[in-house]
Design a protein that fits this description.
Length: 616
């Protein structure tokens, strides 16, 4: 949601902070601020409402603020409206403690009242100001050092946080702490960097420390010291990140989303090749990297998949694919529901959580709920070292690389293939698939990247179609089985970046109420990749056409009879029908993208949204 950056070193901090924040702006973007300290001087705090460019202008691209030690923040408002007053950094009245925070302090009201009894006053509506003043309170009351004051605060607050603070008495140092909110620390050439996400500091270093949950750290020039909640020093391993800085740049595309759509063939190939290996003349799934054994898969009684948004949609596809190939029952749950509804789990239920960021609060909570019940959890996750990757029993690491656009495309596609691969491995472990069929399926899966290239080659036609429909008010996506799961994703792609109302419906369900919304010119997009369901969905399309709908159909090459019904037909290459989502989703991503562009909207940073949803 919000983004934080910190820097201690010989260079000027402000330009580094602004640069880092620009890489995090996709996480939250209604205001921004920074605090920079020059030697022993008091920190200079500058804040601006609106986009980061406003802060950059106010500070002359950072040149107007001197000092080598600083912290910065981009805000996605939770407590209090977007305003300069509520923007971070926040500080105690005497500037003793200045800090930035990502996350939510749930008991901030109670803590605020406590502090008010001790004569503290508050200038903002934020929970962050309360946290900063609580650190100040403990620091002064117990006359302890920064680490002890922060530890006392951590014990007292409920919620999630990644927090970075500077203390008046400790020039040249930044103190950080985290609970359930991401934070990474990097070092290089005597300089120390901190951020809520790797892309913010990747340009400067790929040598990263992951600070653990409920841990703290002290950042000095070129040095980091980690502490546990008792204030004892703890050792951390320095990790080298493979992503290059260029992967987090637009690379000539107008938007990250378009760049990421075009990266899909490559990242799919990487993800498939990481676990699909040659064995003699055949291909087989190699589970070594994931860490689960064939024996463990054999013992799985059923599967529960918990995820949010697009990741949940991949779970919907997995449900069809796993049940069909492995004959193992699958239930798909919204992670935000799973955590509170006391789900029934068998001892041998395998819980699969799916997450690009690996930090989604609800998905992380679902993982913890499952583990607390004694169930094993397998995570399909993209961000290395994320909370979900670290806490899961088994990890299927997707290799999408950094995804910057808020609307996911390449990470979604990698999650899909991860699901197919797990389905095949499970089917084999359960004796439902022989080696010949495994090889056939994996060979077909390896042809998906080339087939996606082919769809991308024909994108101009979709641009034309999108420009015709950029002003529609409602769009319905209909399909059955896997096609319904594809519709869920197509519909979300459209609405999140174009702000057009859209719904995905199981094609047969429309006539039970929603069909009353169809009127002259309503755009209905039918997805028909499943041969056994083709005629059925065509019938449902005819039903809406006779009520005035304009019909677009997405199907495989060869199904040309669609043109008898649809006003506009889109064809994707044929593939094994279990993998159809990987191809049919591409034109739907492109339609969403082009409609957003033709409406003149901010494709990569849609309103009200954040890339990584670290609050409930
Ligand atoms: O990081 P995650 O995969 O856990 O995120 C889950 C959803 O928030 C995410 O897929 C969201 O729906 C995307 N904006 C959709 O494009």
């Amino acid at each position: 949601m919000c983004g934080i950056v910190g820097f201690v070193g010989k260079k000027q901090a402000a330009p580094v902070l602004l640069d880092g924040l620009s890489k995090l702006e996709y996480r939250g973007y209604d205001s921004a601020g920074l605090a920079v300290r020059n030697g022993e001087d008091e920190p200079v705090i500058v804040k601006a409402k609106g986009r980061l460019k406003d802060l950059a202008e106010k500070t002359d691209e950072g040149k107007a603020v001197f000092g080598g030690c600083g912290i910065g923040h981009t805000r996605w408002a939770t407590h209090g409206e977007p305003s300069e007053n509520n923007a971070h950094p926040h500080c105690s009245d005497d500037m003793n403690v200045v800090g930035v925070h990502n996350g939510i302090i749930e008991n901030y009201q109670e803590l605020k009242e406590k502090l008010q009894h001790h004569d503290y006053t508050f200038y903002s509506q934020t929970d962050t100001e309360v946290a900063i003043k609580l650190i100040d309170y403990y620091y002064k009351k117990y006359q302890v050092g920064p680490i002890d004051a922060i530890a006392k605060t951590m014990v007292r607050v409920r919620g999630s946080y990644a927090i970075a603070v500077m203390f008046k008495d400790y020039p040249g140092q930044i103190y950080v702490a985290r609970k359930d909110s991401p934070m990474v620390i990097g070092i290089k050439d005597g300089q120390t960097y901190m951020a809520s996400d790797v892309p913010a500091i990747l340009k400067y270093t790929n040598q990263i420390y992951y600070i653990g949950n409920l841990e703290m750290a002290r950042l000095d020039e070129g040095k980091v010291t980690f502490f546990n909640l008792d204030g004892d020093e703890v050792e951390k391993e320095l990790v080298t990140i493979d992503w290059d800085a260029e992967a987090a740049e637009k690379g000539g595309y107008e938007h990250f989303m378009m760049k990421e759509i075009h990266e899909q063939p490559k990242v799919l190939e990487d993800t498939i090749n990481s676990v699909v290996k040659k064995s003699g003349k055949s291909l087989e799934v190699d589970l070594t990297e994931i860490g689960i054994t064939e024996e463990e898969l054999k013992n799985v009684s059923d599967i529960v998949i918990a995820a949010c948004g697009s990741a949940y949609h991949t779970g919907m596809v997995d449900q069809y694919v796993i049940e069909d190939l492995a004959k193992v029952p699958v239930r798909v749950e919204l992670a935000s529901e799973f955590r509170y509804r006391k789900p029934l789990l068998n001892p041998n239920t395998l819980v699969i959580v799916v997450s690009q960021s690996g930090e989604t609060a609800d998905t992380l909570a679902a993982l913890r709920e499952a583990k607390s019940r004694g169930n094993k959890v397998l995570a399909i996750v993209n961000v290395v070292g994320s909370s979900i990757a670290r806490e899961a029993d088994y990890v299927f690491q997707t290799l999408a690389g950094p995804e910057i656009s808020v609307a996911t495309t390449k990470a979604y596609s990698c999650q899909l293939v991860a699901g197919y691969i797990l389905a095949i491995a499970l089917a084999k472990a359960k004796g439902q698939l022989d080696e010949k069929k495994e090889n056939e399926l994996l060979t077909e899966m390896r042809s998906l990247p080339a087939k996606i290239e082919k769809i991308l080659d024909e994108k101009e036609r979709l641009q034309w179609f999108a420009s015709k429909f950029s002003n529609v008010h409602d769009v319905f996506y209909i399909g059955r089985g896997i096609d319904y799961a594809i519709c869920l994703e197509g519909s979300l792609k459209l609405k999140e970046i174009s702000y057009i109302h859209s719904e995905a419906y199981a094609a047969g369900e429309l006539k039970h109420g929603t069909i009353s919304l169809i009127e002259d010119g309503t755009l209905v997009i039918g997805v028909l990749t499943q041969s056994g369901l083709f005629e059925k969905t065509v019938s449902n399309m005819v039903e809406v056409k006779s009520r005035g709908a304009y019909l677009c159909g997405v199907t495989s090459y060869g199904n040309y009879s669609l043109e008898d019904t649809a006003d506009f037909s889109i064809y994707v290459p044929k593939t094994d029908e279990h993998f159809a989502a990987s191809l049919a989703v591409i034109p739907l991503q492109l339609i969403g993208y082009y409609i957003s562009v033709s409406r003149g909207l901010d494709v990569d940073k849609p309103r009200n949204l954040a890339k990584s949803v670290t609050v409930e």
